[in-house]
Write a structure and sequence with these properties.
single chain, 253 residues, alpha/beta, six-stranded parallel β-sheet, two-stranded parallel sheet, 13% strand, globular
């Protein structure tokens, strides 16, 4: 009974905003439609990785069909993060003769998704030096973050880009992965077969993989960090102050 009243109140609040800042096009699109926001009110500014900026790798981590290929899954919920697909991707690669391994950070897979080629760090506290080192090693040594999850915003993908790590994910609204730049976003419903095919393609073309690592880090430096967020928001404020749009902020939310 209260839903219509609540919605009207929310809509009034949102329509009175000077700026609504969204991390993704998907969130902006949904909010614009729901609350009837104007383009001048509603702006996309990507969020950043919630880690200290790591040093850029000196040379791209090599990828070879004759060497170990390391996959990574990060998150608290194995199933919500697409862990079963990542596990099956590893198995498909192994069946094809690739020495694929899977590292899991932040959760405990069920026994059915554990085998000798899976390493699990159930929880890592980055405030503890030893555990922070394990966290960084997991990202530095991985060749792909394989995470077919549904996200309103996926911080792990920002963290992956910070470590020059390409991400393989599903094409969902809150995933900050640009196809061919920071990894690949596959159509929803894609199976482990499609994920494995992407990896096998790069195994045949290691130069393209090296370029993907470089562009992943470049995108992190350009937009997937909090300093970039702050600069963009500052510029938006300056633009609106100069145009007079924010001249009456004291009377608005």
């Amino acid at each position: 009974m209260l839903d219509p009243l609540t919605f009207r109140a929310e809509r009034a609040i949102y329509q009175n905003l000077d700026l609504a800042l969204w991390p993704s096009d998907w969130l902006k699109r949904e909010a614009d439609t729901l609350y009837d926001l104007s383009e001048s009110q509603s702006v996309v500014v990507p969020w950043g990785a919630n880690i200290d900026t790591p040093k850029a790798e000196a040379t791209p981590l090599a990828l070879s069909k004759d060497a170990q290929v390391n996959l990574l899954v990060v998150g608290r919920d194995w199933f919500a993060k697409g862990g079963p697909v990542a596990f099956e991707t590893m198995n498909i690669l192994r069946e094809a003769g690739v020495d694929a391994r899977l590292t899991v950070v932040g959760t405990q897979p069920p026994d059915v998704h554990i085998n000798p080629y899976v390493k699990v760090h159930r929880a890592l506290n980055k405030a503890v030096p030893r555990e922070r080192a394990l966290f960084e090693a997991a990202f530095r040594n991985a060749h792909f973050l394989v995470q077919p999850s549904f996200e309103s915003w996926g911080f792990a993908f920002c963290e992956a880009a910070a470590y020059s790590l390409p991400s393989l994910c599903l094409s969902v609204g809150g995933v900050p992965v640009q196809d061919g730049i920071t990894g690949h976003d596959l159509p929803q419903g894609s199976s482990a077969i499609e994920f494995a095919e992407i990896i096998q393609g790069y195994l045949k073309n290691p130069e393209s993989y090296a370029a993907l690592r470089l562009s992943s880090r470049a995108e992190f430096e350009a937009s997937l960090n909090w300093d970039a967020w702050g600069r963009r928001v500052h510029d938006l404020f300056e633009e609106r102050l100069a145009s007079g749009i924010l001249s009456d902020m004291s009377s608005r939310t």
